[in-house]
Amino acid sequence: MKKHYLLTFIFVGLMALQLQSQTIDGFSKNSGSKQMDFEKQFKETVDFSRFRIHLEAITSEPHVAGTAANEKVKDYMVESMKKSGWEVNVYPYDLYLSKGPGESLIEIVTPIRQPLNQQENILTEDPYSSNPNLWKGWNAFSGSGDVTAEVVYANYGTKADFEKLKELGIDVKGKIVLARYGGNFRGYKAKFAEQYGAAGLIIFTDPADAGYMKGPVYPEGTYYDESSIQRGSLLTVDWTGDALTPFEPALPLDGKTKIKRLDPAEVEGLLTIPVTPIGYGAAKEIIGKMKGKAVPAGWQGGLPFTYRLEGGKELTVRLKVQQEKGMVRANNVVGTLKGELYPDEWIILGCHYDAWGFGSTDPNSGTAMLLSMAETMGKMAKDGKRPARSILIAHWDAEEHAVIGSTEWVEQFRDELGAKAVAYINLDAAVSGRNFGTASSPTLKKVIMESAKQVAYPDSAKTVYDVWAAGKPEPSIGNLGGGSDHIAFYMHVGIPSISGGASGPSLYHTNYDNLHFYEKFADPTFKMGGTVEQVIGIMALRLANAEIIPYEASRYSKDLATHFENSEKSVKAYDKNFNGFEKSKEAVTALKSSAEALDSKIASVLAGSQLDSKKIKAINKDLIALEKSFIDPKGMYYGNWYRSLYASTDPFSGYASWMLPGIQYEAEMKSSARLTEWDDRYSKAILDLKSKMDVLLKTL
After folding, report:
1. DSSP 3-state assignment of 105?
2. What is the mean pLDDT of residues 416-422?
3. How far is residue 307 from each of residues 93, 156, 302, 310, measured CA to CA in Å?
4. What span, in angstroms and rounded, lies between the C-alpha atoms of 624 and 92?
């Protein structure tokens, strides 16, 4: 106990010294002092016990999108936020989804008949593992079929892996492909398997990637046991969101506004072959009987025998999937705490709530934290401490099926969001461990770092920032890629976004992601929920209360210079005659001068005379428009829904971040045909951004 008080005393003393000299970006000296008091009250109001209460309430039962259990989670969130004083709206959509796993089986037919396990084992140590409402392993958007065929092993099932099979003379046509998780989005494994003529696909988690070769398996440790199965969607259309309504919200069929939907039969990206996942305990029964040539270097997994490319004619496997698809109702829950001065400027925080099972780490650790934050901010608002700008907390549905709920909401309010949204903060699985980290667009990197400096790291005399930076001058902040609800905000509309929180061990998309796992491995102290709430809450409040939105303009030029350097290396690797993106680099140099001048001028103005509210509003309107310079209506050649020239999800892996994606696509295709076009498009966008900054400099 004495140690705890000593740590608290040291931290409070350090914070007091810090506050005496600190100025806060976006605030004048007077308003900055008030903000520090605001933040102090916010931190003191956070009730660390509420995170656990909410997490237990919403993850006590499996709740897949479209189920009655997920409706109960929705109702709980609505009631909780209303009690906290938020204005709550539910936004319904009718989505084209798989209506559950349907019927499936996998069995070895020859040389022996052997059915294979498709669900996690019941464990005496884990009381949640016996829940009767848990489903077997399945992949949403699988095709339906019943096939018996020979087997081909395709490593991770990446584009390069299928090309390697072809190079080695291995024909997958009419075969069942066996591929391990990792390397790319599971939907692309299925897409490539179908393109190469496979009759079906079985995906498994290999012990070399996430099983016993990494460490002790669950329930002793945090790695996949032989029965653990990763579920997930397979949808790979050329846009994010509902498969039948690209660019348009999938509004309810019984609503007033009618939305034209595509015919599912005509949508590329909806699979026809059967696909299902298994654990490595089942996969070893197939792999151990394969008799073909040994795999090339890098393809060997962790099962205790040589991996083979083919099973041979003696080994046949039956794969059956019957999975119904159709319209499924999904609901987004969005709470609003209206801003006192600028209600039409929005800071949006979000996390999806649908899960593949219990979802205690992914996603609902983020959900529970946001519900607690709504209570904290609601209490402060009742005490007269209301933010200057509106804060929205959103709980998205059907994210697990292809980032759908958030995308439909963004498409529904696209123009309004473009004009009003200051930032989107994504908090998917945001309290799934004790390792704080983020990925971010350039302008929000500084504000999250500064916010992390204001919060104590649990059981430590250090701040969250200190632990995060780990002795480096600045912590590593990643680039935004695919896989979660920031996609539509950032890559379709151009809203500065950040995705992060505290990560940790994960039994990703398995039935074991439950409260027993959370309490034993993710955060046994249950202190990170309140800690992350404090960091993210301070960030949201700084964005909400700053007189001038605290974007860091100079980050654009710094990051762009790095991205163009990397892009040139990628192109020169296959085109020795390429001379570089000269127009774009000149534009970045010109931008650097304007961006640094803008940051300096804003700081100078805030340190000086008082700005009137009308002028502040005009300045912030122009700041909100900065990121839109990278939004190009023509979009990407691999899918024009992706409109950001700055960043995109990788269309081949589905998860990775593509910076300068127009160029990255050309490099991936080893093409030089459009490099001049992209140099023109990028230089134009960068000079447009510079022009906006120059106008702001004159306004200030």
Report:
1. strand
2. 98
3. 45, 13, 9, 9
4. 28
Q: Mean pLDDT score of the chain, rounded to an integer?
A: 95
- 562 Cβ partners below 8 Å, 6+ apart? none
3-state secondary structure of 145: strand
Q: Is the CA virtual torsion 498, 504, 507, 510 positive or negative?
A: negative
Residues 378-395 pLDDT 10s: 999 999 999 999 999 999
Q: Which residues of 313-338 are buried (b: 16+ CB within 10 A; e: fewer)?
A: eebbbbbbbebebebbbbbbbbbbbe
Of the candidates 335, 337, 334, 333, the one whose C-alpha atom is nearest the C-alpha of residue 42 is 337
pLDDT at 265: 94
Is it the case that residue 217 has pLDDT exceeding 80? Answer: yes
Q: What is the pLDDT of residue 14?
A: 46
Reading the block at residue 77, the tokens are 């969130």
- Residue 191's contacts (CB-CB under 8 Å, 6 or more residues apart) are 234, 236, 269, 271
For the stretch 582-631, pLDDT in tens is 999 999 999 999 999 999 999 999 998 778 888 999 999 999 999 999 99
Give, for 308, the enclosing helix (H) or strand (E): none
Euclidean distance between CA atoms 349 and 327, whole angstroms:
28
Q: Which two tokens stand for residue 109?
A: 């037919």
Neighbours of 575 (CB within 10 A): 15
User: Taking the model in full, what pTM does it have?
Assistant: 0.96
Instruction: Name 87's bridge partners.
Output: 336
Burial of 268 (0-12, 13-18, 19+ CB in 10 A): exposed
Rounded CA gap, 391 and 86, in Å?
A: 10
Give 652's pLDDT tier (boundaries 50, 70, 90).
Answer: confident
**Separation between Cα atoms, residue 650 and residue 638, nearest integer Å:** 10
Residues 634, 637: Cα–Cα separation, whole Å: 8
Whole-number pLDDT of residue 22: 65
Q: What angle do CA 543, 659, 649 make, to 5 degrees?
A: 85
- Tell me the C-alpha distance between 271 and 700, whole Å: 54
Percentage of residues in the chain with pLDDT exceeding 90? 94
How wide is the angle at C-alpha 306 spanned by C-alphas 300 and 312, nearest 5°? 110
Residue 630 DSSP one-character state: G
Q: How confident is the model at residue 653 (pLDDT cuts 50, 70, 90)?
A: confident
